[in-house]
Design a protein that fits this description.
The chain is α+β, with helices and mostly antiparallel strands and 153 residues long. It has one domain. The chain contains six helices and five strands. Strands 4-3-2-1-5 form a five-stranded antiparallel sheet. It is globular, with a radius of gyration of 15 Å. It starts with a strand and ends in a 6-residue tail after the last helix. The model has no long low-confidence stretch (mean pLDDT 83).
């Protein structure tokens, strides 16, 4: 069964910024295929890395609500084309709280964030997402709170 893996950032500037902009320490998310040992995520673009990762931080793994076939994830890497997450995307994500205060929709510039990739991939494989299309893309923290509501953040 495909797993969803959340990386929790407890220390350092990245952890501070993650908590400041999203409200919890879940800073990254991706898919793990335990049978093959490959981890699929979105950093600047879709990628695949061997599990366990060399830079392991605190991680929480949960079963995906639907099966996301590994071949699907491989095909998405091969077909991602111009889908990349750049500086303007990071900047717009940081402005998310301001957009919400103004009642404006938050959009990405060119790419998608890791949690948006996970959400979209789950939907394409049959999951009925809790996330509304009209709302800003979910952050790793939003997904973490949905899948692991009883874990202290």
């Amino acid at each position: 069964m495909t797993k969803i893996v959340f990386f929790l950032e407890d220390k350092g500037i990245y952890g501070f910024l993650t908590r400041l902009f999203t409200g919890c320490s879940a800073g990254h998310v991706g898919f793990l295929c335990p049978d093959s040992g490959w981890f699929y995520d979105m950093y600047l673009m879709r990628r695949r890395r061997k599990w366990p990762l060399g830079d392991m931080r605190k991680v929480v793994a949960v079963d995906a609500p639907v099966q996301v076939p590994e071949q699907y994830l491989i095909d998405k890497i091969l077909d991602s084309g111009s889908e990349y997450y750049g500086f303007v995307d990071f900047f717009l994500f940081a402005l998310r709280p301001l957009y919400r205060l103004l009642g404006r929709p938050v959009r990405n510039h060119n790419g998608i964030i890791c949690s948006e990739m996970v959400n979209d991939d789950l939907i394409e494989n049959g999951w009925l997402s809790f996330w509304e299309e009209s709302s800003p893309p979910p952050s790793p923290c939003d997904l973490f709170r949905y899948f692991e509501p009883n874990v202290p953040l």
